[in-house]
Design a protein that fits this description.
With 244 residues, the chain is α/β, with parallel strands linked by helices. The model has no long low-confidence stretch (mean pLDDT 93).
């Protein structure tokens, strides 16, 4: 990483292209997902080494259930494998793991694995690693609205008490820094229902690199691009230098 560059506090990545990576090599899509897991290990390690505070990875969207059942099963099996294999390493490296999303659709065994992994790392003070699993931005907003509505119905708050801050407090990652930079690999230029509320003023970076090939060099390129952006958050341009 080039010195004297602004390192974003919170980076979110849409890890796209595993299936196409495998198809280009005449291999099964599941092989691409396994290669993608190797890329995850490298990027998590690199993110921690350069001082990123929060890394959020889009692993399994709420729409991924529409994929062929064999691929869904392979994805979930890989998720379980990763939880089982990586937890000790994450804990040893002071990484705190959070799983964001509606985990109620997962098996009881997988839900237990998620709970145990989060509890194991909950006191770690290094990189916060959020894995979005069965996550959708619309679901996140909806479940916040349901919680706020219940508070009104129960007389805990009034309609006038509903502010952006209170609404956001019911959403995933409410206690973490806002997302500074969103990276999407694989060549598509869309958000795909990812963190719709949380990325309102995030910088977006799209690359044609398929996720299994995404490495520290490409990560540096994304951060370099981030450093060229002037973040105004709805305000007017200034002559001040870029700041995170």
């Amino acid at each position: 990483m080039t010195q004297n560059k602004c390192i974003p506090s919170h980076v979110a990545i849409i890890m796209d292209g595993n299936g196409r990576w495998a198809q280009q090599r005449n291999q099964l899509r599941a092989t691409g997902h396994r290669a993608g897991l190797k890329a995850v290990r490298k990027i998590v390690t690199y993110a921690a080494s350069i001082g990123i505070k929060v890394l959020t990875l889009y692993a399994f969207s709420s729409e991924n259930w529409k994929r062929p059942s064999t691929e869904v099963s392979a994805l979930i099996s890989l998720f379980m494998y990763a939880l089982n294999r990586e937890m000790k390493s994450l804990n040893k490296n002071n990484v705190r793991l959070n799983i964001i999303g509606d985990i109620s659709r997962f098996s009881y065994h997988l839900q237990n694995m998620i709970t145990n992994a989060e509890q194991l790392t909950q006191n770690n003070t290094g990189l916060v690693l959020n894995i979005a699993a069965n996550y959708g931005g619309r679901w996140d907003i909806l479940q916040s609205a349901q919680k706020i509505t219940a508070q009104v119905v129960n007389g805990e708050i009034t309609l006038d008490d509903i502010t952006e801050e209170r609404f956001a407090s019911q959403m995933c990652m409410y206690d973490l820094p806002e997302v500074d930079l969103v990276i999407r690999t694989g060549g598509d230029c869309r958000i795909s229902n990812f963190l719709l509320w949380q990325i309102a003023y995030s910088e977006l970076y799209f690359t044609d690199i398929l996720w299994p090939d995404f490495n520290s060099t490409q990560f540096d390129e994304a951060i370099k691009a981030f450093n060229t952006r002037e973040r105004r958050f709805g305000g007017i341009p200034t002559t001040q230098e870029h700041s995170c």
